[in-house]
Write a structure and sequence with these properties.
hydrolase, Jelly Rolls, 5 domains, 913 residues, 12% helix, 6-stranded antiparallel beta sheet, mainly beta, 8-stranded parallel beta sheet
Length: 913
């Protein structure tokens, strides 16, 4: 599931009513607005502010958390991208327990689960009337197994919504004799092909689209209500197999009218790290269709940081559509279960939650069951911890019982009063009379707060473009946080403040006054001493001073006040506390005794670990143990001494280096007060051994101010190296990761951890690096070749035997003319100069994607040097000056350079004339 980009659907014309600003009392349902070529910027902003979700989009947004389950042949092969040749009999889940799958997600608070009924390998996880590459061909349960039914039955049992992922790509059907990309003609047909009593669909489709629609029909008619149908746009042929998205969606809308479609109703957020943009708009400019039921694609792509800001609202697009983001991510490093992979930490999951659900996105989190058909115990525990942490954080709204009023100088529109932000109804709202304004919430008593939840009433549109939150310190307002967009939900964290008044200021809004549905306040416990009252032990006890005194909540340093611990005089005495579970540890505070003997707590070690300590080790040995964080303090401890940790841990130990008695007044453990999110883009193509691939690493503040973030990589392919440019970023910055393989790097997939480390916390994202074997160059230096496209069979051609520099090259039917002959001359760096036999000019590229590849006077520059890189069906010609790939569309079309994509459309073969 590594490839998310969706092809645009075929346009379906539909009349649209004139845009009218919708009042907060009106119902949702204005999902697509047409852009006029004469619209001004002000009119475009007003139109964007009036776009609203359909009922199914609104219901989808309210789900917030959706599970994803990948299970199939890849579970047994160690791959994430199957070959399509795996034997169905490989699937033998002896302990299949779909009830456990569903309960694991439900107990964590997930409202829906999407099951992978078919991945890119093409195997159907149910018995199909249209394919033999299905569960009926497995000996598991004597060929009667239906994993889709098992899953959907369990979902109904537990009251969880159902989603189905039917991969459009099909590598099994791409095998010789298959239907995928076979070039078959479109013919009139009826779906389903096997007559039945249900609805019928007349289509004009090729072989593969008929197969796909028949299986889609099965899935939408045999298993009850389906709430989401998940498509993606991966095509291993590089475009040779068209997808009939329009017909697919028509089938979905008819058979499952309440189901959202991925690529139609909701979109990929642009990464697989579960991280939304810090300004995440749900109104997206596009050029696809006015039909709210159609498929669409952002005008400005999926992955850019800005695809819908005010500057993107121009007449270059034809429509504005409600098209909210879905943030997909993996609990384990891979989409499918593989041995010896550990799940994300609780800290990483919470960071992801705030960066997805907390940024106007839905989180789609994958958990892969193992070969027994069960979710592993470690994953079950982590999901339970995740759900428990979300519930505990948001259990108590500190604004309960509060009152709300307009700030000085602000009034509200009729009926849209301040109290609406406190009524727990996302369909009502406070609306200032102007586009900006303030709202004050007065709490019943001073409360500790560090988290604010804001919601717009999106049934009237998404409008907020800037906001700030202030707290009252008794004499004046102090700003504690600020942001840009809100949308369905925005969760913002800040350092803990005790206050009785909180003010929301809307500092910017798109064209129309916003409607704020919710303002809720929470304390996430990060200022709470996690060690207080927890079980503690020490190496020995002297003077009736037990270990528990250091976690009693009393920092008083007088031993005779009965709040200081005491051990015997012994070698390296120790004290430790068990926090009960592995938690993110931001800081520690150690309180020394103050009556006498404070100098005894000098030259000591502090350790943090997820696993119990081995007290038979020396302090130095303990510090060197795997997974242990340590800090040696050679000076005397203070009241307190504070240490920044930045690690998850369950056990905390303090240990003297010498033989003095160990006395502690208090040990306090705190969660991080500052946090960030981390995302890494997935390389979309394989890399031959000896070549390099890149990933864009993006960071953003989620709480406080994290300071510098140092980037690193782990679990690289053998023989590979990683570099970051830059290696240190400030939260909100980006870096380019380059993974350079070596000639000895073996073929295969590697899950590379991209790690960001700040003072109090670290996070990681994963990218899959697919290494393919390096092959010998397909040409001999000094010889002439005809260069043919591996997909079309057409040859690179100088049109009309032109001899003019700057003539764009094309592809044309192969012939014996010299204008299709090219001399390859190897250069010192291993690349080639490619010279036309007919004109004597060289193949030349500039630097920008999409620009033409021409012939030009040969000069030896980097823009005339081309590397030959092994790829599907042949080799890519990669320009040394730009790193872009020689690309072409149809016969007679001009050659251009573009970023590499999967498949054979950019592959070339070299034929000796």
């Amino acid at each position: 599931m590594r490839f998310r980009l969706l092809a645009a659907g075929v346009a379906i014309s539909s009349a649209l009513a004139t845009v009218v600003a919708v009042s907060p009392a009106a119902a949702a349902g204005n999902p697509v607005v047409t852009i006029s070529p004469t619209d001004t910027q002000a009119q475009l902003l007003a139109k964007a502010a009036s776009v609203t979700p359909t009922d199914r989009q609104l219901a989808w947004q309210r789900e917030e958390l959706t599970g994803f389950v990948h299970f199939g042949p890849n579970t047994y092969t160690g791959r994430d991208l199957g070959l399509g040749t795996e034997d169905p009999d490989i699937i033998q889940p002896a302990g299949l327990d779909t009830d456990q799958w569903v309960s694991t997600f439900k107990d964590a608070g997930f409202k829906k689960i999407i099951f992978t009924a078919k991945h890119h390998d093409g195997m159907l996880m149910y018995p199909s009337a249209y394919s033999t590459y299905d569960m009926a061909s497995s000996s598991y349960l004597n060929g009667t197994a239906d994993l889709v039914k098992s899953f959907t039955d369990s979902a109904r049992k537990f009251g969880v919504k159902v989603g189905i992922y039917l991969s459009p790509s099909d590598l099994h059907e791409y095998q010789p004799g298959g239907t995928f990309g076979n070039g078959s003609a479109k013919v009139n047909a009826t779906i389903p092909s096997i007559a039945g009593t249900g609805p019928k669909f007349d289509v004009v489709a090729d072989d593969y689209n008929r197969l796909y629609m028949n299986t889609l029909y099965e899935l939408l008619t045999k298993y009850g209500t389906v709430d989401e149908v998940w498509f993606d746009g991966y095509d291993p042929t590089g475009g040779r197999q068209p997808y009939n998205f329009t017909d697919w969606v028509r089938i979905v809308r008819t058979l499952q009218p309440t189901a959202v479609t991925f690529g139609g109703d909701v979109r990929w957020v642009g990464n697989e790290s579960g991280v939304a943009r810090t300004s995440e708009w749900s109104v997206i400019p596009n050029n696809n269709t006015a039909n709210p039921d159609g498929m669409r694609k952002s005008t400005f792509g999926e992955v850019a940081d800005n695809i819908a800001g005010d500057d993107k609202l121009t007449t270059a697009s034809s429509y504005l559509a409600w098209f909210p983001g879905e943030c997909d991510a993996k609990l384990q490093p891979s989409w499918f279960w593989h041995p010896n992979q550990t799940p994300k930490t609780l800290s990483a999951l919470m960071s992801m939650y705030y960066a997805s659900v907390g940024r106007n996105c839905q989180l789609l989190l994958n958990v892969g069951p193992n070969q027994q058909g069960k979710i592993g115990a470690t994953e079950v525990t982590r999901m339970a911890e995740f759900g428990a942490k979300i519930r505990s954080t948001f259990a108590t709204n500190q604004a309960a019982g509060a009152t709300a009023a307009n700030d000085t100088g602000t009034s509200n529109t009729s009926g849209n009063v301040p109290a609406n932000v406190l009524d727990a109804n996302d369909g009502t709202g406070w609306q200032p009379s102007a586009n900006t304004g303030g709202l004050v919430v007065d709490l019943p008593a001073p409360k500790a707060v560090n988290t604010v939840v804001l919601q717009e009433n999106i049934q009237v549109g998404q409008r907020v473009a800037g906001f700030a939150v202030d707290t009252w310190n008794g004499t004046s307002w102090q700003q504690v946080t600020a942001g840009t967009t809100v949308g369905y939900k925005r969760i913002v964290q800040f350092p803990t403040v005790s206050t009785q008044k909180v003010r929301l200021r809307i500092t910017a809004s798109r064209a129309l006054a916003p409607s704020i549905a919710t303002l809720a306040l929470y304390d996430d416990g990060s200022a709470t001493n996690l060690a207080q009252g927890k079980p503690s032990t020490q190496s020995s006890t002297s003077n009736s001073a037990p270990a528990s005194r250091a976690v009693d909540g009393n920092t008083h340093g007088d031993f005779f006040a009965n709040s200081v611990t005491h051990t015997n005089s012994e070698a390296s005495p120790w004290w430790q506390v068990d926090l009960g579970a592995s938690v993110p540890v931001g800081k520690l505070a150690l309180w020394n005794r103050t009556d006498c003997c404070a100098n005894r707590l000098t030259d000591y070690w502090v350790f943090v670990s997820d696993t119990p300590f081995n007290t038979s080790l020396t302090p130095a040995q303990q510090a060197a143990a795997p997974g242990v964080w340590s800090s040696r303090q050679t000076g005397q401890a203070g009241t307190p001494t504070q240490l920044t940790v930045g690690k998850t841990g369950r056990y905390v130990m303090v240990r003297l280096a010498g033989t003095n008695p160990l006395s502690l007044a208090e040990v306090q453990v705190f969660a991080p007060a500052n946090d960030f999110s981390l995302a890494a883009s997935q390389p979309m193509t394989s890399v031959p051994a000896g070549q390099a691939t890149t990933s864009t690493v993006t960071t953003a503040v989620t709480k406080g101010a994290t300071g510098p973030i140092t980037l690193s990589a782990a679990n690289l392919p053998p023989g590979a190296t990683a570099t970051f440019n830059p290696v240190t970023v400030t939260a909100g910055g980006t870096s380019t990761l380059t993974i350079q393989t070596s000639a000895s790097t073996p073929p295969g997939d590697s899950i590379v951890d991209v790690i960001g480390t700040a003072a109090e916390v670290s996070h990681s994202a994963q990218v899959t690096v697919s290494v393919v074997a390096a092959s010998a160059d397909p040409v001999v230096s000094g010889q002439r070749y005809q260069v043919r496209n591996a997909l079309s069979g057409k040859a690179v051609d100088v049109p009309g035997n032109a001899t003019t520099a700057g003539t764009q090259l094309i592809q044309w039917a192969p012939h014996s003319g010299d204008n299709q002959r090219w001399t390859f001359t190897k250069q010192a760096d291993g690349s080639y100069e490619v010279r036309s036999v007919s004109s004597g000019l060289c193949m030349d590229a500039t630097t920008n994607s999409g620009e033409p590849v021409v012939q030009w006077t040969c000069h030896g520059g980097s823009n005339q040097r081309w590397s030959l890189v092994a790829a599907t069906g042949g080799h890519r010609l990669v320009a040394k000056s730009s790193g872009k790939v020689l690309t072409v569309a149809g016969t007679g079309d001009g050659l251009t350079q573009a970023a590499a994509v999967a498949g054979s459309a950019q592959s070339w073969i070299f034929v000796t004339p």
